[in-house]
């Protein structure tokens, strides 16, 4: 039959395969259907082209696909397949037919059986149609040549012949090489790896590397260049150390020649171990198959100091070849004491850098705190009815809280009430918002800095300062001017932040983290854990601060309280999910002891800084004295009226005394007990006829005489709440600026690879 060229599209070929495969498999009898040879890629039809009956039958090589397995299984009594599916197609003139031992079987048909030859024609045609449709990407051969130096260094040359079809192998292949090992007693270490050269089809080729978990990945090829389909040969040359295993009675080369994590099958694998001159092996063995397998589908030959291992069966994806060569004790130099010490420091550098840096930062902070951060001893606190000398209500809040923070609007509300009591302002509280109105009382330059700033804001607004959402920008500007005036006038007088010492600790922590990043070993699996650790730490800190501020803010409505609790529940659920994901990652095998050192050290650095940020600030000696006086005033403001009356020298309650201390009570957050004490006194005085109903001249809102303490407390707290809620919302979407037995997969080397 004349040679023909089969040219069909993939779709046509697939339809052809689909139509005939079922009928083919069903029609094939369990017999040897023919004996002959192929001509032009098709079974010969004319009897004159058949091989003579007495001729020895050669083995046929068939290229096929997975769906033909059943058909070829039926023919297994007639064929000997010398290569797996994916090998070469039968060539013209090749012999194909019965095994020699089957020639005497009645079912082994001879030439002239046209039914059998028809099946052969159909089968061969099907193979030809299928081959171009499903051309498989495969490693045709993998050769690992390892020269073991007397020093224990391995010089390795890997030759990888692949068949590429542009499926997974588009631009080239990648090769993964493990860098971290674990000993039988659980210790981990790092091997050295020095890539010397990479070639493609005998020519240097672009390549780059990147870190992977416990290893390195070598990408061979260029992202800008597509690899032509066909057969190609890659060759990698590298040097690696710390691979020899030293035992009491022998030294051992245990080498995973191919790696067990290739994405492609390997048709033939070879490993050649060249020992130092004059050294011969005392024992050898090998393992093939998937990771952990103890199969031995290979053979070994020894020629002096050279041991060669070859597989006798193809390796599937994620299967490999590992070899073991034992040599006499001392044949390979053991590491010296200095080398062992250097390796120990290298293996545990995460511990030394991480925990060493953490200890250094902690000692720095501890010594700094002992020097400047410890509070002076507190004095004796006794109730007092006079405000601390020189402290306005706002300054009392500033000293008490060592800054404003969440108490800023409480301090402003206290200042507004103090100015109103002194006759500078009238406070009006309509149905919505609040208004501060200037009186005709002349400006007093002797007023405290905060009160000057508030009066200036009212004067700049034309004498009527409206506090509501519509005027939020003016409220914000007033609040900023208010806090700046007080902090600018009294910075460092009553307490110190010790910012310089904190900056030093943060810089030292950053250096420790940078040292870990540059000199340590941080696997890819640790990076998301570290990211989430820092993110969650910062998030929890900000969230806790927000919740604390929310609940400290007075005059909160029930709806805002419920909203805060709902937000807390939602964010808490999110945190639990994130922490759960972290726990799964941490508990997985991808996190080893060295990674734990990084996680703990970085977490410790963050925690240490957070702790000392809160405790490094300290009151000055003058500030400590004022804090004792403030504590005495607060104690007096919270006493019951009966206890207050029993204090020797205490002034009698009166509207004037109540109003004088009311701003301080608001600043300290105790306006309700102070108002209740006044309410109790006033009720008794009205009943006795010694006082009339109280109606403050400085307040123009709806004022009821019943439940005075509740009304005063509600009024003062709602003033702070109104100011806070009037602040404009900030836009955060835009940026200001940017041991035991061996197995396949065991030993040094290993890894795997794929296409990219």
From TrEMBL:
Domain DUF2207: 139-326
Region named Disordered: 721-756
InterPro entries reported for this sequence: DUF2207 (IPR018702), MFS_trans_sf (IPR036259), YciQ-like_C (IPR048389)
UniProt keyword annotation of Coiled coil present: no
Listed Gly residues bias regions: 737-756
Keyword Transmembrane tagged: yes
Name of protein: DUF2207 domain-containing protein
Taxonomy, superkingdom: Bacteria
Compositional bias per record (Low complexity), positions renumbered to this chain: 721-736
Keywords: Membrane, Transmembrane, Transmembrane helix
Domain Predicted membrane protein YciQ-like C-terminal: 385-678
